[in-house]
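W.,

You were right to be curious about this one. When I first looked at the sequence I had no strong expectations either way, so I just let the prediction run and decided to look at it fresh. Below is the sequence, 252 residues in total, followed by the output.
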Amino acid sequence: MLELKNITKEYDGITILDDINLEIAEGEIVSILGPSGSGKTTLLNMILGMTDVTKGQIIFNGQDMTKVPMEKRGFNIVFQDYALFPNLNAYENIVYGLRNNPELSTKEDVAEMIQLLGLQEHLNKRVEQLSGGQKQRVALARTMVMKPKILLLDEPLSALDGVIKESIKEKIKQIAKDFNLTTIIVTHDPEEALTLSDRVLIINEGKIAQFGKAHEIINTPQNTFVKKFILNQLEIKRNNIFSLFQQESRRA
């Protein structure tokens, strides 16, 4: 279990996150959702260990991780831009981290992850030859062979569209289930968060606005902000999709 206790983050006297308390169960998928500047990426970076905590504790399976260096936490992240090495092919990117940690995954483990993510036919491709969805799957495979204790994803679907996005969502769900892996996702997309996650954490102005299951947030929003934010964002998305269909119809 991951526990955040009274987590506060301040920059130059400005409070970015204020007294965050929550518990995330082993194997649970949680999305962190909120408007730009709400503190969601800062929270993800503090869990990872990339950003220091001003006040509070980060506890994982009973161990205080608050001051444990990032490289010793065993948490791994897939960045929004994938962060693949352009001079390496897909397979070389997947096994890159095992060069200094070969004991983490066997060849069989690597092959299993490649099979799970459907990357067999893309292993010899260079990064520029891969589609966005293929790059995302390579980045996921590279992270998973390192056997993370917690999987962190920063806007994992933002550059993807349609069928590819749905495919990656299903892969993330399958990985979390098959490996009983706690997975934390930062996203700006309410629909993505509500359909992908077991629970959704909504942050506004550095504080928890609501933390609950999708049906709880949709049917019983705890405050006006949650209600307006979810409805407005979904309406914007529907309007954008409608506008896109209109443009395509005119071209046809």
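Here's what jumped out at me. The longest helix spans residues 224-251. And, maybe more interesting for your project: The two ends are 53 Å apart (CA to CA).

Coffee later to discuss?

I.
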